[in-house]
Amino acid sequence: MANHKSSIKRIRSNEAKRTENRYYAKTTRSAVKKLRTATSKDEAEKLLPKVSSMLDKLAKKSVIHKNKAGNIKSKLAKKVASLK
Q: How many CA atoms lie within 13 A of 9 on its CB side?
């Protein structure tokens, strides 16, 4: 166990950030999955900006790499464009 006050606080704050990051990452993964399984173009076009925004926020906070966010957004945009 840590002995210094600052390291004890760091452990607490790291755990809080980890929990928050896991929540947002899981929520985003669920939204991406929902968009990938969408069959109607209208529904997909409504979801795409929200999902893109979620991915950008995760990349900004370094929860996921910015290139990964870009790759996912690109693939989703192609998917939505191909729907009829």
A: 3
